Amino acid sequence: MTPFRVALTGVAGALLLAASPLAAQAPALIPPQGLAAMASEAGRYPLFAQEVARARAEVDAAMKRPIDVPVPRDPGGGVTHEQHKRNYKIIRGAGLLFRITGERRYADHARDMLLAYARLYPGLGPHPARANQNAGRLFWQSLNDSVWLVEAIQGYDAIRGALTPAERKTIEDGVFRPMARFLSDGSPHVFNRIHNHATWANAGVGMTGYVLGDKDLVEKALLGLDKSGKAGFLRQLDLLFSPDGYYAEGPYYQRYALQPFVVFASAIQANDPGRKIFEYRDGIVLKAVTTAIQMTHGGYFFPINDAMPDKSLKTEELYYGVAVAYGATRDPGLLSIAQWQGRTVLTPDGLAVARDLAAGKAKPFPFASKLFRDGPEGDQGALAILRAGLDADDQVLVAKNTSQGMGHGHFDKLHWLLYDQGQPIVTDYGAARFLNIEAKDGGRYLPENDSWAQQTIAHNTLVVDETSHFDAKLKTAEKVAPTQLAFNGEGPTRWSVAEVAGAYKGVRMRRALAQVDVEGLAQPLVVDVMKASSDAAHRYDLPLHYAGHLIETGFDLQSNVTTRPVLGKANGYQHLWVDATGRPAVDEGTVTWLNHGRFYTYRMLPPKGAEVILAESGANDPRFNLRREPVVIQRVDGARDATFVSLLEPHGRYDAAAETTVGSKSGIAGLSHARAGAADIVTIRTKAGRTVVLAFADNTAAGVAHNAQVGGRTLEWTGPVGRFDQ
């Protein structure tokens, strides 16, 4: 029996591997010292041992079944689609298990699967289920082919040294070289794009180049097909991330794109350390990882743009991201994220995470209020995150003042979200899609993604004349980004101020959002001042999408109890049922809902004559593609300038188990707004007798002094926002 047919673990396994012919043919993607450490220490640290056991269980189960490499037929979620996904995971897992354990059976299985692909792949043309995506061959879109290549080349790299020259030639000529050519020279419109699809293609082709010793493939992956540097992986790093590590398409796609960025960067570091890839552009790859983590609440990514709300840090991309970033930085805060994830990856970096976690080196990740600039130069708006504290249940306010986000972006400038008690309170719909559920249009984006989810009325920002920002035209929206005017994430009053001109012709919008700690109130208040100015009269709608059950309103409603009118005919309005309307008098504009045992009162000061509409998504949805979610809309007609002042107050507690209710009524006695000099003055009075005055200056420069006369009192402050407590 050869050494490779027995289970090799610990030091003995490492020594046998080192003495074998494999030592002279080490993988290209993993440094030799990392291989030795994984082989000798695999069972020593619980998190890594757990990953080895998980991989063993998955691969061993697959090895009991016949190899299945089907002719591609189905779109996302279909039988053949899912089988090819399982296959690349098994190829990668088997290859790494071979290197870790030394058991030849794993190499044999990965080899046999790749030989089957070598027989299948040369005869494939464009995928039969291709739609409006760039067609792949194994999958309905070439993106998935790129993912297959990124994963499978890692498995092949691990076993390549154990194969005969003939086996290598068959696999490389049958699968890896033609797939690399198809994804690069054969798909220039994808490969040379500045987009996550190109990132995956660049990574797969470049890693294949390193494994096959093909410098041409590597250079094309790094610098674009013509090797000019105008496209390719390095250009992606230049243009897709802001200087703060914010990814153009938003947190959800930052998560998705992160894996090819970090695994290819690791391959570059292993093969071309002189490039200093982890130092490139002031360490942008590593910034991208920590920024992605910051853009979460309770571990879940903020679901702006085309996003699914159920994606968290417990995902393959972030297992890689955390491991690679820790390997490069040894930042102990990343260990606490790995601990929360409960996972790592079968790489030397994953081993380092497990080793240092076992040694007790983890420290809390430094979540904080952050401003992440958008755009390659940081001048295309920003994502503003205001945190009331560091606990998972503490309130988090997110102001989306970012650029369009390319094709996955939504038409909603100056939009905001709120989380509290680990729950979404002021919500974002995200994408209209059931990912990989074949019954729902093959897992693709649904028609309602265009007609509802991307439209402005589906978000918490101002809508003019029942049309979406930029008339929902991508090329127009890509030309205009908001301006982040001011931000403060510290102290008892934290704020974000931004504006945009160009979302509507002749209309300028500015929004100030403040998270305000008030003595005597258990939770921070959120103050929202949304202003619009125009030379022409318009209909202005300001929606607030919320999660919870409506408890009461402070004004009378005209409810539609037998029929439900539809709010409009287009631009998302056709998907809203109107449940009730009302015209609140001053001090009556409140709506209260209940969410996870806490009450939330939304207090409105809309422009004079405004109507309030209570509505729900789901109209004109014959296939039940949309979630049914409530929204409250403030509407004013025939106004040139309009100022909407709102206050969101968390309060009280309902304990269903104990059948007790405390503080279900608002603790706010009054909310008022006045214009004084060059500032908006918002006054909040609590029932406990406290008064908080917030002054929002038109001039948002940091060092400018302001003053305003309010009720016979002179207010003086410096900077964009002043606060005065009584």
Please tell me the CATH architecture of the largest domain by its name: Distorted Sandwich
| Contiguous uncertain segments of 5+ residues | 1-24
What is the fold-level CATH name, i.e. the topology of the largest domain? Beta-galactosidase, Chain A, domain 5
Q: Which CATH class of the largest domain? A: Mainly Beta
The pLDDT mean sits at: 94
Note the total helix count.
18
Major sheet details: 8 strands, antiparallel
- Across the major sheet, the strand order is 9-10-11-12-21-18-17-14
Q: What Rg, in angstroms, do the CA atoms define?
A: 28 Å
- What's the total number of strands? 29
Question: Strand content of the residues, in percent?
Answer: 15-25%
Task: Walk me through this protein's architecture.
Helix content is 32%, strand content 25%. The radius of gyration is 28 Å and the shape is elongated. Helix 5 (104-120) runs antiparallel to helix 6 (142-159). An 8-stranded antiparallel β-sheet has the order 9-10-11-12-21-18-17-14, with no helix packed on it. The protein contains 18 helices and 29 strands. The longest helix is centred in the N-terminal third of the chain and has 23 residues, at 79-101. The protein has 3 domains: 1-183, Glycosyltransferase; 240-367, Glycosyltransferase (Alpha/alpha barrel); 370-725, Distorted Sandwich (Beta-galactosidase, Chain A, domain 5), CATH 2.70.98. Mean pLDDT is 94; it is low at 1-24. The N and C termini lie far apart (85 Å). By secondary structure, it is of the alpha+beta class. A hairpin with a 4-residue loop joins strand 9 and strand 10 (493-504). Residues 89-283 form the Alginate lyase domain. This is Alginate lyase. InterPro entries: Alginate_lyase_dom, Chondroitin_lyas, Hepar_II_III_C.
